[in-house]
Input
Amino acid sequence: MLNKKCALIFSVILLSVSACKATQPYTPVVVTNVVEIEKSQADIYNKVRQWFSEYFVSGESVIDYEDAATGTIIGNGVASIGSDPFGIIQYKIHFSIRVDTKDGKFKIEYKINKHTNSDSTNGTYNVAHITEDRNNLAKQEVEKITANLEKYLKQGSSSW
Output
């Protein structure tokens, strides 16, 4: 009887250690796009700067660095990527965004630093294990942001 109890305890401990070992820390995902556009570096930079201030209006999204001479803007953003099937838990990504501009093109790089969930009961909390589906949702969201920037750059300026 004692041997069975010892074997059971040993199995539980072994399983617990295995489960802890199987969970890997989140590794940030990087998504990079280069978009060609018929504008000068200065024009692209100025429009990107305007787009940042119009697109990222949340207090959680800010520009950390900008340099017109090099054509670089770096910021941080938060984006919603959906919710659970009942709409109770909201899924978000927190990312850094870097835009480098040159004559005729820009490069945009996202580093998805973490995923969070938020609900009315527990507030906002980090998500340690990210499924492939959730990573795909995050990548799709940053692709939408890139498409929005490209559309913004291609539209003409208003002549109010």
